[in-house]
Amino acid sequence: MNEARPYRIIISGGGTGGHVFPAIAIADSIRELDASSDILFVGAKGKLEMEKVPAAGYRIEGLDIAGLQRRLTLKNLAFPFKVMRSLSRSKRIVRGFDPDAAVGVGGYASGPVLYVAAKRGVPTLIQEQNSYAGKTNKWLARKAKKICVAYDGMERYFPKGKIIVTGNPVRRSLANISISKADALRSFGLSSASKTLLMLGGSLGARTINESVRNGLTSIIEVGYQLIWQCGRHYAGQYSVLERNGVVIRPFIEKMEEAYAAADVIIARAGALTISELCLVAKPVILVPSPNVAEDHQRKNASALVSKDAALMVLDADARGKLIPTALDLMNDMARQQQLSNNIRTLARPNAADDIAREVMALAKEHRQ
After folding, report:
1. Angle CA(258)–CA(58)–CA(84) in degrees, nearest 5?
2. CATH number of 173-345
3. Can you give the pTM of this predicted structure?
4. Taking the CB of the first residue and of the last residue of the chain, which one, N or C, has fewer CB atoms within 10 A?
């Protein structure tokens, strides 16, 4: 083994912002520990990582991989062939890059890459974001050296001796938000004289939340509140026409630190990354778990906060009738807002990316010995 060469790290996974942004945060922390480290991402072709990772300054290779569809569809017939092609491509990538460690952050690409890396004797680390472990990570855990998790009690799914509770990495811009609320509101063209509701439906959008906000838009405006509405790229054409004075509608918000700083109350899905960010920004939040995820894990994520009185939850099935009334009640209740903010703040883990990066580099150094 060449001791003089930079440490080489593969980071694999993606598919959504919930996987991509933590992966980039880990890479940034590895670079802070060792500026000479050589980091290669491996993602799924056509997914968000193929855009966001190069924009963050890192190389990425793409696999032709996708998950099984939940409904019966012809696309599932191609699944086995895509897996075989992805395994073959992963072998070439791992052999050519010769990594000292491999990190899986979840998403379609992490399975074949970490499987191949482990078979070649490369130490692997899994970053499990949710309170319920997915099938791929449970499978990969058998060969993984370390498993970094965000929730207690994960020994239900993984070998206890491999688990490290680190929390989920978040974007560095959110760890210490420096913009003032007044400046943040100004960046959206909003007034400091009115309270502001922030609605987040994820990068693609959330139909139920969008419909709930659309139905309650008149109520929000009538009481004098402002709205920042991330409707998602899939719904931009449908909802952008509703924008008006005091109502800002965006398909995607690039500078999330400004949106969080501007908000008095937040409505959001209960993805792992979103929850980790909300714990850091410590704003009162109403979670609407997506029902369209494996093993109902978003509801489990949300319940973990609700059990600590750190968030409110409205189920997706109830959202059209209950979401906006619940939000308006919370906007009017300063004492409840403060209580929720105080409780969610105690769950924040601002050093998660650094802690994971140290574990990765320890594995890489051990591999070199």
Report:
1. 115
2. 3.40.50.2000
3. 0.83
4. C
